Amino acid sequence: MSNLPTSAVNEFPISASDVGRQPSDIEREVVRLFEQFRTPLLRYTLSLGLPLADGEEITQEVFIALFQHLQMGKCERNLRGWIFRVAHNLALKRRKSNRRLQDHPQAERFLAEQHLDSSPNPEEQVLSARRQRRLLAVLEALPEQDRACLRLRAEGLRYREIARVLGISLGAVSISLTRSLARLMCADER
Fold it and tell me: Which is the most buried residue in 39, 90, 154, 168, by most CB within 10 A?
């Protein structure tokens, strides 16, 4: 290294976390995280109203960014929160660039249709469909921040992680989830 100019040495910084960590270790870690979080991330991006193709592309972009993040020796604490935050930001950018905001997000309709059980009798099916329409109506009437909090909580993120992903306070997450769940429970009791 003493023969290299100072500028060349600074081009490739090596952090303490890089010592003993080979690219194959990073690749294995990213693959493990991809297998663990691919489906929840895809569900989350779809719940933001993006088409499936966009959701899949964003999911890939997140893990490419994660690989680069780890390769540069950056912070490895709370990677789940980091992954969802990057996905959230990319999804919002994509949604804005697509300019395809709809009154009824595709993902919520898709998820509701998947939960319909074909085995109940016709009366039970009608009651179930009415219940789902009521709950979806309440869900769609919630402010965007409340829906985002619910989606992230449904993906298993803790309140603190949700606050980091959305860039809001822990108290705001708690209030948002409490308010949203109360509205959903009230609609479900009808």
Answer: 90
Q: What is the DSSP string of 30-79?
A: HHHHHHHHHHHHHHHHHHTT--HHHHHHHHHHHHHHHHHHHHTT---TTH
* Tokens read off for 49: 């109203």
Q: Which fold has domain 17-114?
A: Rna Polymerase Sigma Factor; Chain: A (1.10.1740)
Q: Which CATH class is domain 122-190?
A: mainly alpha
CB atoms within 10 A of CB 116: 11
Neighbours of 183 (CB within 10 A): 16
Residues 6+ apart with CB under 8 A from 143: none
Residue corresponding to tokens 């991330």: 41
State pLDDT tens for residues 72-131.
888 778 889 999 999 999 998 988 887 644 444 555 555 455 554 446 677 777 888 888
Q: How far is CA 166 from CA 24, 88, 91, 117, 174, in A?
A: 32, 8, 12, 34, 13
**Number of C-alpha atoms within 13 angstroms, CB side, residue 2?**
0
